[in-house]
C-alpha cells in the first residue's frame, strides 16, 4: 500500500476511534458522572490510534529501504555487481527506480536484471510495514478504548499527548540543525585530512581551479576569502547600514508623528522583503558598472565592474531595515522615565537622544549590529551576482573581492567530484562561516539579555 | 470654584486651566497660585488630575501627543504657554522629580552634572565640581556618596536614587521644583529623609508636591489643594484644610469616606 494511502487509513481509523470513544463516553455519562468530557475521551483514543502507528511508520520509512537493499544484495542476481562502492550504489539506485516505475528504461543492463528482485523486496517490506502499522493502530485503539470509564482522567492524558506532539515538532528543528552541523563537520574533517588546517586558515593564496596534487594546501588558503567577506559584509555594508539604520530608527521613534511612522515603517519593512536576487541584479547591472565608471573617471582605468564597493553598498542597503528595526526595539526598550527625566531637565530632544537614550540603548544597538554583520557575511545572492570570483586581498574598494559564500557556490556548482579537495573545501568554508555567525549570534544574544535585565 | 488662597507674591499662577487628552477632559477650570514661602501639596484620589495639572506647570504634557492645554499659566508673570516661550528654558526654571526614581544609567557625578552641562552653567571643571558637590549636599546625599561619585547612579538604593534625582533637579538652579508622588516607591525611612529634605529646601525654591498620602501632605506642606474629578475642590492653608475643611467633598476624602 502506498505511503499516503496508509496515512489516510490511519487517520480514518483515528477518526472512527474518536467517534466510538466519544459515543461510549456519552453513554457512560448516563450512569455516572464522568471525570473528563466525552470529547476528551475521544481524543485520548484517537491519539492512541494514530501516534504509535505514525511513530512506527517514520522509523519504518527509514529502515525498510535498507532492509530491501540488504535483501537485494544477498540475492544470487547481485553476484555480478561491481565492487567499487560508487558504481554499485549507482546501479542499485537505478534498479530501485525501475522497480518503482517499470516504464523507465534501463541504462545499465545489470540494473534491469536486479529490478524484479528489488520490486519483490520493496513490495514485501511495504506489506509488512502496512500490517504492523495497522496492528499498532488497532492495538493502541483497543487499549485506550478499554480504559474509558467514568473516573478515567482522559483530560490529563490528552494534555500530555499534546505536549508530546509539540515537543516532537520543536525537536525536528533542533535535530535538523544538529544534522547539518554534523554533516558539515564530517565533510570538513575529510577536507582537513587532505589539507592542513593551518594552510587553509592562514594561507593567502586561493585558486581552487588548479589545485596542486602534491601540496593542495598551497592553493587553498582562505585568507583572501575571509578578507573579502569581512571587507564587503562587515566594513562596506555596515558603513552604509549602521548610520542610515540608526538615524532612521531615531527619526521613527523620537521625531516622526504617528501618522508618518504609520507610513514609513511598513515601507522600510518592504525593503527587507525584497528578494535578495533582485538586489543582486541591481548590484550587478546598475551599481557595479556605475561604480566602475566613477572609478575610471577619477583615474583608475583598470577598475573592476565587480568591485567590493558595488556588492557592499547594495548589501548595506539591504541590511538598513534590519539595523533600523533592531535599533528601534533597543530605543523603545529604554524606559520612558529616562526620556522624561532628561526632558524635564530642560534638555532638547537631540540632547536627550545623544546623551541619555543612545547610551542606554547602546548594548541593544550593538547586539543588533552584530546580528546584522552575521547576516551580511552569510548573504549569498548579492555577492554571487555582483562580486568577483578572483580572490585578492586589497584595501581598495574599487578592486574586485570575493567572499566565502560566493566561493562555496562556485565550488559546488557545475561538474565536481565529491572527494576532491576542491569540493570538500566548500564544506570547510561552510563550517567556518557557520562557526563565525554562530559565535556572533551568541555574543549578540547575550548582550541583549544582559541589557534587558538592566531594565528588569 | 473656591478662590485661590491669597499670597503676597505668587511664583506661578494658573487661571482657568483646562487639559484634554484627545476628547476626554482631565482638568476642568483650575485656578491656583503657588509661592516661594510655602510648600504646596496637591491631594486627591487616584485619577483626580493632580499629576496631570502638575505636569502643565513645566509643560511636560507637551510630550504626550494627544494632550491639549488651555487657560493661562504664568511664571513670574510670564505666560508659559505663549508661542515665544522657550520650553527648554522653562523646564530649566521649573524642575521636576518623578514618582519612580529615574537616575540616568550614568555615574552619580554625571547624573548631577547633566543639567549644568547641557545648559552651560559651569565655566570650568572646578566650577562643575562645585555645583555637583553643592547640589548633592543640598539633597542630603553628599556624605553618603562623596567617595563613590563614579559609581553608577542606578546602583544606589531607591531612597538615595530619589535624592539623586532631587540633586539633579537642583543642579540647574531652578526656581520651582515639582514633585510627582516622590515617595510612593520608597520605604518609610527613605520617605522620612525626603520629607526632611523638602523642609530644608522650602524657601529656596517654590515646591509643589503631589501626594496620595494625606499624612505626608499634612507633614510637609503649608498649602494644600484638593482635587477631585479634574476640578480643584478646595485650596487653602494646610492646617485648615485638614482640621476645618469648608467643602463637604474635602471632608469626606480627608476622613477616609472615599479615595
Overview features:
heterodimer; A: 456 residues; mainly alpha; MetI-like fold; 2 domains; 15 helices; 77% helix; 0% strand; B: 259 residues; alpha/beta; Rossmann fold; six-stranded mixed beta sheet; four-stranded antiparallel beta sheet; 10 helices; 10 strands; globular; ATP hydrolysis activity (chain B); phosphate transmembrane transporter activity (chain B); Phosphate ABC transporter ATP-binding protein (chain B)
Explain what this protein looks like in three dimensions.
The complex is a heterodimer of chains A (456) and B (259). Chain A has two domains: 3-151, no CATH class; 216-454, Orthogonal Bundle (MetI-like fold). In chain A, helix 7 packs across helix 10 and helix 11 runs antiparallel to helix 12 (349-378). With 456 residues, chain A is mostly helical. Chain A is built from 15 helices and no strands. With 259 residues, chain B is α/β, with parallel strands linked by helices. Chain B has one domain (10-36, 49-227): Rossmann fold (3-Layer(aba) Sandwich). Helix content of chain B is 35%, strand content 26%. Chain B contains ten helices and ten strands. Chain B has a six-stranded mixed beta sheet, with helices on both faces. In chain B, strands 2-1-4-5 form a four-stranded antiparallel beta sheet, with helices on one face. In chain B, strand 9 and strand 10 form a beta hairpin. In chain B, helix 4 crosses helix 6 (158-170). Chain B starts with 9 loop residues before the first strand and ends in a 5-residue tail after the last helix. At the A-B interface, helix 11 and helix 12 of A face helix 2, helix 3 and helix 6 of B.
